[in-house]
Amino acid sequence: IRLWTDKKKTFMLDKVGGFLGLSLLTIMLGWLAVRFFERKSKIPRLNVRFEEVNDKSHIDEDSCNIPEALRGAPSDVIEAYMMAAVGTPLHANLRNLSSFFRGTSIGGNSGEKQIIDSGFSAGMINRCRALCARLDEEIFDPTEAPGRVVAKRRTALSSTAQAILRMSRVTLLAGIDAMFENEDGRDAGGVVKEYLTEVTTEIQELALFRVVADGTLHISENAPILLVLALGRLIGAIVAWAARRLAFGGTSSPTLDLSLCKPLAKLIAGEKIAATDIASVDPELYRTRIEISRSQNGIHTLRQALGLENDDLLFAWYDPISGEPTEPLHPQGFEHKVTEDNVDLYVRETAEFYLLNNVRRQTAALINGVHSILGDAKIIQHRDLLLLLNGVANFDLIDWRKNTIIQVPATVDTDLASRVVHTFWSILNSDLTNDARSRLLLYSTGAATLPPPGTFAQLQPKFKIVLDPTLPLHHLPVAHTCFNQLHLPLLDDPKKLSSSLQLALDHGLGSFGLA
């Protein structure tokens, strides 16, 4: 660089000055480049294209196509879907599902109590408060309006999945305003309960889950990813509503009759899987593979059971009928022999293969759906999650009667009113099975279970029986599920009232406007 003076003499900048000038130029260019790429990075760039895909179809694992149902969905929902399509949980601390089968005493009894009524505790309330505090800090907005869904009977989940997927997290946390197509019901709490009952029915009809040994549910390999993702978001919202209600009180929140198996609930809650969890899902597998493997001379015994007297036991899944190895438990499984030193690893990989082999995408979709609402969900335990989701199915008739309000209009004779009420409770005690009582609760309140802790004292609004003189004696009992009210005609004849109740339970569930 040359500088010209008035005397037209040329001077060369010294080496230090040249270095400083070059450094300054480099810094300026670097700053401009950073600003340029910062601006570019603010534009979301998903290497995908939108194209129409059937809501109930699978997406190919190698494909990055996003279904039409997700057009306009929040970016975190699209991310949850894309990661579920390749069997990957959304949150980094859950990315490796295999880790939940590692580092745990898979051979021992976890010592967990199975009785759900002892699961309600001060500890659970504190965890619910912690969850609500985190949601309040992150996203919850008490002024947000609930999301509107218009459902069709028998396809409640399918017909509303797109709406659920497109709702923001804050909207779902605010609640759901449900209505049924071509029906008169307007939601003040009762319609959303009915909607969730219809969702449960469709889940059964579509076989999104399979029943395991202990009667609970594990995800099915045929479950469509989009429906499972929407269901996961719905589960997350229900758990959040129930946690807030349990922590701070208020109107009873709706529940979903979906008894997830313990391993699946543990994966959602980010807990380790124990051997006893496998026993609850498939006791035969536990007895013939896991328990034998960990016993004295277990490897030899298992080889005999599989017909491998002259062959090594490999890290592979063995067909229970032919005894042949069909798939490796890990990439080099067919070359890896099971020994006394690595038998624990074999047990864990066998458990993981059984639970996740064909359902990794479905499992990831369910987890991602829940976590798109709750975060990584590690604040609450799996028992909390099940209790908040399902409510309590076992309830006490004495507690029910004690916490019921009886409304008798002034025009009704008190002796007649006493006889009708006595007849009603006698029918519940003698004529109705436990299942029928649950259906009566469903008919009257819109939910077949009680919110935790499972007492009628906590049901809000209180359960109310109204003796209605305006109802003809031949009329069915009328329910107002938004207010947990059951209106009875003035029938004191046990046979007639029992028949009327039974007819209502058999034919009155599943629609609004039935007289």
From TrEMBL:
It catalyses: S-ubiquitinyl-[E2 ubiquitin-conjugating enzyme]-L-cysteine + [acceptor protein]-L-lysine = [E2 ubiquitin-conjugating enzyme]-L-cysteine + N(6)-ubiquitinyl-[acceptor protein]-L-lysine. InterPro entries: E3_ubiq-protein_ligase, HECT_dom, Hect_E3_ubiquitin_ligase. SUPFAM superfamilies: Hect, E3 ligase catalytic domain. Keywords: Membrane, Transferase, Transmembrane, Transmembrane helix, Ubl conjugation pathway. One of its GO terms (molecular function) is ubiquitin protein ligase activity. It is an enzyme of class 2 (transferase). This is HECT-type E3 ubiquitin transferase. It comes from Aureoumbra lagunensis. The lineage of its organism: Eukaryota, Sar, Stramenopiles, Ochrophyta, Pelagophyceae.
